[in-house]
């Protein structure tokens, strides 16, 4: 968390999103949400794009509600959500080593989408954007998958890999926003902050 006066609240405790905002020179304060504020489960038949946008908007809106309840200074609230999608199936964070192994086997040798949505909650409205990137994995052997699982990096990551970590060695090609794949598309984030919130960055 930045020590300078914050320009926004970040409704996320993700270290990766915090690092990206810091990299962009955007001062922020982390606004912790309660466990039941956001139920991260797709609705029946909900398309991946709609789900990611709904999650980002919900986080931003709930963050603004918590801001008011805690009598904090009024600032724009940024929410974000990232999901890995293959053949229309959303790959969340693996619940076990077995589920992580299954995800990596399915991603092996194929190109999948990474969807990252951002939402900015302001007093008058909530604005959102979605960024779609493509990531191609090399063909992975079971030994390679097991070695990667042993690093513990896949856990807590959508799709069971981290492009900013050792997971980059699994990837042959990306198309789109690298920072979006990490968890926060900086170009689009800056655009929404400057055009919608009128911030000077």
Protein topology:
Elements lengths: L7 E3 L4 H9 L4 E3 L17 H22 L7 E10 L2 E3 L5 H11 L3 E11 L4 E12 L4 H8 L21 E5 L2 H5 L3 H11 L5
Helix pairs in contact: 3-4
Whole-Å distance between the termini? 17 Å
Summarize model confidence as the mean pLDDT. Answer: 95
Number of strands: 7
Low-confidence stretches: none
Number of domains: 1
Major beta-sheet overview:
7 strands, mixed
Q: What portion of the residues fall into strands of 2 or more residues?
A: 15-25%
Helix content: 25-40%
CATH class: Alpha Beta
| CATH level 3 topology | Maf protein
Radius of gyration: 17 Å
- Listing every helix as H and every strand as E from the N terminus to the C terminus, the arrangement reads EHEHEEHEEHEHH
Secondary structural class? alpha/beta
How many helical stretches?
Answer: 6
Please identify, by name, the CATH architecture: Alpha-Beta Complex
Shape field: elongated
Key features?
Maf protein, single chain, 6 helices, 33% helix, 7-stranded mixed β-sheet, 201 residues, alpha/beta
Characterization of this structure:
This protein is elongated. The mean pLDDT is 95. The protein has one domain: Maf protein, CATH 3.90.950. Strands 1, 2, 3, 4, 5, 6 and 7 form a seven-stranded mixed sheet that branches. The chain contains six helices and seven strands. With 201 residues, the protein is an alpha/beta fold. Helix 3 crosses helix 4.
Give a quick summary of the entry.
It contains six helices and seven strands, in the order E-H-E-H-E-E-H-E-E-H-E-H-H.
């Amino acid at each position: 968390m930045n020590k300078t006066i914050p320009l926004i609240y970040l409704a996320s405790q993700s270290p990766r999103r915090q690092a990206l905002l810091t990299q962009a020179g955007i001062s922020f304060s982390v606004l912790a949400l309660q466990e039941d504020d956001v139920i991260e489960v797709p609705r029946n038949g909900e398309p991946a794009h709609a789900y990611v946008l709904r999650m980002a908007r919900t986080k931003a809106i709930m963050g603004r509600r918590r801001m008011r309840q805690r009598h904090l200074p009024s600032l724009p609230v940024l929410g974000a959500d990232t999901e890995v999608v293959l053949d229309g199936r959303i790959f969340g964070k693996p619940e076990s080593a077995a589920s992580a192994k299954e995800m990596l086997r399915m991603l092996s040798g194929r190109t999948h989408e990474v969807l990252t949505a951002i939402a900015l909650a302001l007093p008058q409205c909530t604005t959102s954007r979605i960024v779609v990137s493509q990531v191609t994995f090399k063909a992975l052997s079971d030994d390679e998958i097991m070695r990667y699982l042993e690093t513990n990096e896949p856990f807590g990551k959508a799709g069971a890999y981290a492009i900013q970590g050792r997971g980059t060695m699994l990837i042959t090609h990306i198309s789109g926003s690298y920072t979006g794949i990490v968890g926060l598309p900086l170009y689009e984030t800056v655009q929404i902050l400057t055009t919608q919130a009128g911030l000077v960055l």
